[in-house]
Amino acid sequence: MTTPSAYRFRCPLIFAVTGLLAIGMIWINSGRTIIGLLLAVTFILPYMVRYRLPASGAIIWALRFIVYLLIFQLTKVSGNVYTDLIDPSTIVVVGYLAAGEMVLQCWRSRPTGKPPGLSLILFAGVAYVGGCFNYDSSLDLLVFWLTPAFFLLLSLSWRRIEAQTLYDPLSRWAKGVYIVTLAVIALLGFGLNYLISDNRTLFTSIAQGLLNSQTPRDTSGMDEQPELGSTFGLQGSSERVLLVRGSLPDPHLRGASFDYYKSRTWGPMTNYRTFIPCPAVLGVPSTLDTVVHILKLGYASGFIYYPLDAASLDLDQQENLQWSPNNAGPIRSNSLGRSSYSFTESSTNGDFTDRPIVSSALARDLVVPSQIDPAVITLTRKITRGKSTALAKIQAICADLDSKHGYSLTYTAGNGDPVSGFILGDKPAHCEYFASAAVIMLRCADIPARYVIGYYAHEQDDDGNIVVRQRDAHAWAEAFVQGGWITVDATPAGGRPDKLYSAPTRWDEFVDDIEDRIQLLQDEASEIGPGKIFAGAVFLIGIYLLARILIKELAGRGARAKASGKARQSVPDCGQRFIKLLEKRRIDIPPGKTWQEFFEDSRDVPLKRDTVLKFVVEYNAYRFGGGNMEELNELLDELERYEPMKANV
Amino acid sequence: MTMEFNETAGLIEKNLETVIKGKGESIRLILISLFSGGHTLLEDSPGTGKTTLAKSLARSIGGIFHRIQFTPDLLPADITGSTFYNQKDGAFTFREGPVFANVVLADEINRTSPRTQSALLEVMSENQITIDGDRRELPQPFFVVATQNPGDYHGTYPLPEAQLDRFAVKVKLGYPDFDNEVDILYSQNDVHPFETLGPVISCRQIIELQEAVRKVAFDRSVAEYLVRLVEASRTDERLRLGVSPRGSLTLYRTSQARAKLLGRSFVLPDDIHSLAVPVLAHRIMLDTKAKYSGISNEDIIKSILDKVPVPR
Predict the structure, then answer these.
(1) CA–CA separation, A519 vs A68, rounded Å?
(2) In angstroms, rounded to a whole number, what is the distance separating the alpha carbons of residues B206 and B197?
(3) Of the residues A114, A140, B109, B237, which has the maximum number of CB atoms within 10 A of its CB?
(4) Residue A265 belongs to what domain range?
(5) pLDDT tops 70 at residue A173
(6) Is B264 an 8 Å CB contact of chain A?
(7) Residue A524 belongs to a domain
(8) Which of A110, A571, A594 is the best residue to mutate to test the B interface, defined by the most B CB atoms within 10 Å of its own CB?
(9) What's the complex ipTM?
(10) Which of the listed ranges A136-150, A628-642, B231-245 does the model predict with the highest average pLDDT?
(11) What are the structural domains, with CATH classification, of chain B?
């Protein structure tokens, strides 16, 4: 039998890095030093433990069963009902199960010659996941980048371990460590469980976010037919939609307006409106007005966005545009990709269409839907009592909404009509609710009003342009006052996109930059002529040929070396060094004997016996098994240091 | 693989040692030949436990076990099976012979005629039988343990070289040492320990282990060393017949099995050293001069091992 090498602690560098990464994650997130320390110890200890249980057979399953049974017994939670997505009792049990499994994995018996790392790598994974789930939004970027890094390092460490741990270390003192490990790992289970259950609200919100991200949405950011949902789904998406060159006195860029309200949806649906081809210039441009250019980026099947006080609209791509004059727009484009247009702004002359205000259209915007609770009408009358002008009424309504409701991205509607429920209650909600409530209440106060969706443009970039992102999507109301439409934004100031997303993050800036560069390349590419194509082709073919020649040359060198037998036959440096040492000590080994045979048989060589046997085993693993040679030179140093008694030489 | 390699091998070894005392080295050689997919020839004087060992091994492996007692009047069809006319349904039916098994014990193989011997040996190398034009596959794994008395005993037909070459290893049992022999006396006092033996490994596991053996790394320098040994046997002037390429192939595979059995994932020159005699010695033939000067096949292989330098 091969002599197992004496116990030595091996920790491949990459594995250590992997472990430290996971520990670091938990440490940073938990802010509790003790858990980080526990993790560090637990990472190192299983490495030193010799596996005990047989890898298969009934005993492991029996033990597993007992451990799980105990865990379930110990963690039985009294019958509380939780409304959260993730039941904390489940998390408790999962935490304990993970700990139990780790204990069992560490005690598995493992014969020599097998990679031992699976349980450890599983463990690293559990720790890492624990770290990631203990989620802090300021660290999400870090997690995002660490995930691929973690898996890369994991796979690398797996390869290293396979080659390295060819012998199962046996140590006398390791026996005492069994018990300590057991205790530490159990403690870790507690720690992990504590971490996870402590952060279950975070879990819930993450899970909810994931669920929301799964529901299909119009990528233009605007719905054909707005519907009052429980959440405002566009939160967080920082994709750029519009680039506005010029100044906007009113940040509300309207896309489409809606007149009818029925069971939590606003209509009419855009697709059902009557569209006609759009003239190139709408309205009458005046030289006094300021011109604002808008560049529409990305996916552009949506609407043309413009402020309410636009006096004229100059559309570059007329052939693709159509509009619906009967419903106060919208103007929409059928073409995909980037497009640009410009409009003029006038403080005096709003509504560029010059469309005569038809009384039937106004009547449409005065209808209070039948499903609205009569209490809403009573409430509105109470609020606006004594207010003589329409503007005063509007202010009173907005002030009432602002005083009762806060802002929240989620809103759980009760039974009955959600808008009535919102107006009469005092729960926080998102802009869709504020806009709907404002429209309904304005109508109750006999002011024509409509529901508008669009973007709230607020973000200035370094070049003085206004950047509009997907997350700046917004909804508000428009009221007809003194012969014209005005914007009524009832959403509390704290809930508007400029407060929610005050500045782009560095990540946003990075993505924007990349996008701009890609766009530049695309623009360049569209201008490439045959000359450039030819030059590019020549360049690519040249690179290809060069690579072919290089590969062939290198491969040929390898093959020649192999054929002459030199590559595989040469004794590696540490072997040469050992042979020199043997000569120096006058140890003569017959050519037909292997080193292992020789040193196992001969007891009185002038070399340290344990070390030399260890060296031979390690050397064989390196020379014939592709193991690593890190420790060989150390062992050689040790052998050379050892001076036999003079009398023996 | 559900079961670890040397765990399984350890189980079989332990199982066998309850019956055969103090023969760990021989048992390990048999296991090496089993896991390398070869067959074993057990040779020694009568009464040293060859048949008991072979039977115990068969019992340790779950699967079909058949024993063929070779006698001078045994015919090839008695081994392979034959077609007979079934009067009930008026058709020819094939009745499988005893070779249709996972473990076949060919007891006293050198007591039967060369014609019958070659019938078995053909099966061993092909793993299939063609009878009356129909090809029939043998069950897997297929492992033959043959026993024989040394050639110069009465009533034997020595196996020709071509047939010896088909056995992966030839194992000699030898007499037990003093203490073990005393133990043997006591252990068989009440009941033969063989009766209590049960299977510890399944056929499926053996196939898995055989596949695992093929994955053991074999450094080119070690392979070259192996071939140098074999070449030395072909040029040795004391030999009439050197080791065949089949011999080097077997040494290659058995070295992998030994490495795996000892928990290594790579082959060392040491593996070749300890297997050279049992794998190669029965494949060479001494010339007349050497034979009468008292040199044995084992001595020749050992001298070759001393002569060819080991890769460092």
Answers:
(1) 57
(2) 18
(3) B109
(4) 240-502
(5) no
(6) yes
(7) no
(8) A594
(9) 0.78
(10) B231-245
(11) 5-210 (3.40.50.300), 216-307 (1.10.8.80)
